[in-house]
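Supplementary Note 2. Why include the ligand at all?

Several targets in our set were suspected to adopt different conformations when bound, so apo predictions alone were not considered sufficient. For every target with a known small-molecule partner we therefore ran a joint prediction. The input for zinc ion is given below.
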Amino acid sequence: MQPLKRNGWIEVICGSMFSGKSEELIRRIKRARIARQTVQVFKPRLDNRYAPDAVVSHNGALEQAESVARAEELLDRVWPHADVVAVDEVQFFDDAIVDVAEVLAGRGVRVILAGLDLDFRGEPFGPTPLLMARAEYVTKLHAICVRCGQPATRTQRLVNGRPAHYNDPVILVGAAERYEARCRHCHEVPG
Ligand code: ADP
Ligand code: ZN
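The joint prediction is reproduced in token form.
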């Protein structure tokens, strides 16, 4: 592979839930800091998983992050001297995040975006596929299918212990909901 000489590019880290996206994002953030780069970390405001203002992986690793409501707000908040901009849960932004990533990369920033590539139905999720197409580097991680032990590429949504239906609303009041990693063959989406 030909190394890039000028700074500024887009990296996407994608995969199902539990595939290690947050872990990998945190690893890249730490290594950039070791290289004495200025790193700024963002996440969408709606995600309240475990900690309000941090990127947290399922294995407990943690990195402070700024929550932003919209892609435009992210762009406004980027420091002029930032070398690296890292974003977790990027699937929850709207498509404006694509232009923001392009603008930052054009300015010389290394932009690292982590997020789900597929929703619980197994369909492309929000802006992630668009970012994957425009990125210089795409890393697709796999979890382990909890059913069969094969590499998992899908996120199984379970409502009260049963596979969620295709048309189930995203928010189900009063229902016990959980997610698990599954392979293509074990992933179930009843119509
Ligand atoms: P993501 O951000 O992709 O949801 P995380 O980085 O938060 O993933 O978590 C990855 C960690 O989740 C793994 O290192 C492992 O400790 C744990 N884990 C739990 N269930 C699974 C699974 N089915 N497959 C792989 N890792 C799992
Ligand atoms: Zn399986």
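DSSP finds four helices and 13 strands in the chain. The pocket of adenosine-5'-diphosphate (ligand 1) is lined by residues 15, 17-23, 57-59, 143-144, 146, 181 (CB under 6 Å). Comparable summaries for the other entries are listed in the accompanying table.
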